[in-house]
Amino acid sequence: MKGTILRQFSYSLLLLVFSICPSTSDIFPGKKHFVRVVNDLEAKRLDVHCYSADDVIDRTLSTKGEQLEFEFRSVVNTYWNCSMNSVVGHVEIEAYISEDPLIDECGGVHCIWNAREDGIYLYRIKHSDYVKKYDWIPKPLRVRSIKRNVRP
Ligand SMILES: *[C@@H]1O[C@H](CO)[C@@H](O)[C@H](O)[C@H]1NC(C)=O
């Protein structure tokens, strides 16, 4: 008997909360989303550093086909940027931005990025194809210092 009353009370409390809060996203965190970064480079290491407003993920994808995937709940203003480093160069991408046309291009709750020799591609789930979104910024050529025989 006591349990029933308590349960009824909880239900009314829940209803009250729902009626007060205009949007349930205020109480419940947003929908689950995923970002995946795939190393599609031929025998090259890829260092990935992804960050949002409150999280950081660092990973080394040492071989072709190796990938990193993480999930998060997306609310207003959620973003994930990933900077990538390889012998080809470096680049920083906007891997996820809530309420952005990018999400529609991702085509679902997954944004899948492929790092290739000629740039970073986004996999468009709805079209089953890849579009190039970023070029690598090439590393500056290493200038070898020329040793001279300087005699005193
Ligand atoms: C994310 O990366 C983009 C592209 O490099 C940059 O313009 C933007 O400022 C970055 N956002 C944050 C929050 O660092």
UniProtKB/TrEMBL annotation:
It is found in: Secreted. One of its GO terms (cellular component) is extracellular region. Residues 1-25 form the signal peptide. Its main location: secreted. Keywords: Secreted, Self-incompatibility, Signal. GO terms for biological process: rejection of self pollen. It comes from the Eukaryota. Belongs to the plant self-incompatibility (S1) protein family. This is S-protein homolog. It comes from Pyrus ussuriensis x Pyrus communis.
